[in-house]
Every structure is written in C-alpha cells, then in structure tokens.
UniProtKB/TrEMBL annotation:
Residues 21-83 form the Adaptor protein ClpS core domain. One of its GO terms (molecular function) is peptidase activity. InterPro entries: ClpS_core (IPR003769), Ribosomal_bL12_C/ClpS-like (IPR014719). The lineage of its organism: Bacteria, Pseudomonadati, Bacteroidota, Flavobacteriia, Flavobacteriales. Keywords: Hydrolase, Protease. The keyword Hydrolase applies. GO terms for biological process: protein catabolic process; proteolysis. This is ATP-dependent Clp protease adaptor ClpS. The keyword Hydrolase applies.
C-alpha cells in the first residue's frame, strides 16, 4: 500500500468517525447523583460504574458526553433523559 493510499484511507476513517453525534449531559443543582445514575443506566444502557463516572464528571466539569452514535439512535435516549428532568442535548 502506498503512502498516498494510506493517507486517503486515514482521512476517510476520520471523516466517518466525525459523523457521530453525542448526547451531552449538563450539570444542574436539582437532581441527585442517584437519580442521574439510575437514569443513565435506564436510558443509555450504562453499567452502574459508567453511570457513576459520568455523574461525577458532570458534577465537577459541568458536562459530559454520555453516549455517541447516529442522531436516529440517540434521539429516543436523549428524550428519556429530558423526560427524567435531566439537562441534555444532542450535538
């Protein structure tokens, strides 16, 4: 494989990765850690450990990407987070 082909392949791979959307969860002063953790487990199929780590990141950093994927896959999950009273958006 030539260098030019490898470079083209790398660029195409990066473009494919960049097309992923993200659900970003934002910190608030209303919801408890337990509520956030349980909601992430339910809505985003997180393990308890993943959900706990995300809740800590949200608390201290103000936001955290909790899920990546296509917009079509993320929309119902983000809706569940919003219905549970969390602050989230798809970007």
């Amino acid at each position: 494989m030539s260098t030019k082909e490898q470079t083209l392949e790398d660029v195409l791979l990066k473009e494919e990765v960049l097309k992923e959307n993200e659900i970003i969860l934002y910190n608030d002063d209303v919801n408890t850690f337990d509520h956030v953790i349980n909601t992430l487990i339910y809505a985003c199929d997180h393990t308890a450990e993943q959900a706990e780590q995300c809740s800590i990141l949200v608390h201290y950093k103000g936001q955290c990407t909790v899920k990546t994927g296509s917009y079509k896959e993320l929309e119902p999950q983000c809706s569940m987070l919003l219905e549970a009273g969390l602050s989230a958006e798809i970007s």
